[in-house]
């Protein structure tokens, strides 16, 4: 084989090796960046879950101290438990949060409540207070059970 052809094959081989090394380097860098993003996302989710668990405890204590209306506490606790431990909403004593939520979810909140007629708001409040009274013992019992809540 002529010497020039050998050099050509050697140069082509070195170029191929260089391209492959560059590709491997780029892929390993992309994998490292993906791992970093995934680790940050997991840390964020863990922090968010911890904050939700703390919110659950705070609301539960507020219920015990009668610092929050039971209906509002049920709506908030149901929303938080949906994210942290949704299976709890089907278990005693926590089922009450789902039940009260189901009875109250049709009632307007925030802007819709402000836009509603005063007579309608009064009727909804009376209905809400009746629901709170009906479930008061169960709500308090569930809130006490949540005081030391720790998700799996």
Describe this entry's structure for a reader.
- By secondary structure, the protein is an all-alpha fold.
- Helices cover 80% and strands 0% of the residues.
- It contains five helices and no strands.
- α1 (3-64) packs antiparallel against α2, α1 crosses α5 and α3 runs antiparallel to α5 (118-146).
- The N and C termini lie far apart (71 Å).
List descriptors.
single chain, 152 residues, 5 helices, elongated
* Principal-axes shape call: elongated
Low-confidence region ranges: none
Radius of gyration: 30 Å
User: What proportion strand?
Assistant: under 5%
Q: What is the strand tally? A: 0
What's the mean pLDDT score? 89
- Structural class by secondary-structure content: mainly alpha
User: Which percent range fits the helix content?
Assistant: over 70%
Secondary-structure element string = HHHHH
- Count of helical regions: 5
Distance between the termini: 71 Å
Can you summarize the main beta sheet? none
Quick summary:
By secondary structure, this protein is mostly helical. It has five helices and no strands.
Question: What is this structure's SSE topology?
Answer:
Layout: H1 3-64, H2 70-84, H3 95-104, H4 110-115, H5 118-146
């Amino acid at each position: 084989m002529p010497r020039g052809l050998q050099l050509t094959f050697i140069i082509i081989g070195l170029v191929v090796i260089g391209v492959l090394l560059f590709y491997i380097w780029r892929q390993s860098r992309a994998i490292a960046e993906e791992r970093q993003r995934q680790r940050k996302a997991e840390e964020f989710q863990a922090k968010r879950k911890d904050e939700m668990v703390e919110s659950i405890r705070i609301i539960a204590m507020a219920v015990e101290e009668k610092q929050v209306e039971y209906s509002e506490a049920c709506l908030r606790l149901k929303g938080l438990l949906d994210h942290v431990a949704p299976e709890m909403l089907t278990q005693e004593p926590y089922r009450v949060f789902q039940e009260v939520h189901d009875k109250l979810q049709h009632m307007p909140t925030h802007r819709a409540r402000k836009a509603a007629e005063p007579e309608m708001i009064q009727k909804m409040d009376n209905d809400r207070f009746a629901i709170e009274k009906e479930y008061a013992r169960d709500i308090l019992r569930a809130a006490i059970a949540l005081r030391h809540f720790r998700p799996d």
